[in-house]
Design brief:
alpha+beta, Jelly Rolls, five-stranded antiparallel beta sheet, three-stranded antiparallel beta sheet, 11 strands, binds fe (ii) ion
Length: 195
């Protein structure tokens, strides 16, 4: 069995021990770890690659017990997309299988939403970074209407439990949300109280 995921978690834990509050340094050093993680598509457990017919899935792969980082398998069914949303913590998105398209936004001084740049295509092996300091608002979709795509997301906190925001595209109106995790069938220490 591949030790790719365990190797990643070990290295990421050591990195957080060494640079706990330095976002720039964490991003700089986490990027090559994420690149190595998605360099080969031979390690993701099949249960963490299951799509849902209606909703994109966020399977928690690992949650740091000190909430310094979390790692999520983001599984897109054909044609699925997120609302426009933010994260409030840094994140590194690495494409594993298929492809996704991301459109960035920013808030204008008047509170509306403005498109930033062109929609970007993320291919297997490529990375995307988000953070409150580098640009945190985007909308992401499966690039394909006829197949599953999977990206691996690393966040600088327990993303499933963090209160963040979705934005209405026309008005910029903001709504709080907590994404949770899709791993309903396994005990999940990192999603709060156990059922
Ligand atoms: Fe996102």
């Amino acid at each position: 069995m591949s030790t790719r995921l365990l190797d990643f978690v070990t290295a990421m834990t050591r990195l957080c021990d060494a640079s706990p509050a330095d976002e720039a340094l964490l991003l700089e050093r986490a990027a090559p770890l994420m690149r190595a993680l998605v360099a080969q598509d031979d390690w993701l457990p099949s249960a963490m690659a299951v799509p849902h017919p209606q909703h994109y899935q966020q399977h928690l792969l690992y949650g740091d017990p000190l909430d310094r980082f979390s790692l999520v398998s983001f599984v897109w069914g054909p044609g699925q997309k997120t609302p426009i949303h933010d994260h409030t913590v840094w994140g590194v998105i690495a494409m594993l299988r298929g492809a996704e398209c991301g459109q960035r936004y920013e808030r204008t001084p008047a509170g509306a939403l403005a498109v930033v740049g062109e929609e970007a295509w993320l291919a297997p092996g490529e990375l995307e970074v988000v953070s409150p300091t580098l640009g945190d608002i985007h909308q992401v979709r499966n690039a394909f209407d006829d197949r599953v795509s999977i990206s691996i997301h690393l966040y600088g906190g327990n993303i499933g439990r963090i209160s963040r925001h979705v934005f209405m595209p026309d008005t910029g109106a903001v709504k709080d949300f907590v994404s949770g995790y899709s791993n309903a069938l396994t005990p999940n220490l990192w999603a709060g109280e156990q059922a």
